[in-house]
Amino acid sequence: GAEVAARRLRAKSDLRIRGLSMFVLIQKSNYSSALPIDGNNSDKILN
Fold first, then answer.
1. What is the pTM of this model?
2. Which structural domain range is residue 17 located in?
């Protein structure tokens, strides 16, 4: 029982970490694609 529960917990936290890193990657690519072509965009991104 405990072994299975521990494995399930580990899998869940792995998923969360993987999801978080995916999210960060997506945010980074969104950020770099939205970087200012004109000067106004930078304010929109930061605020």
1. 0.45
2. 2-46
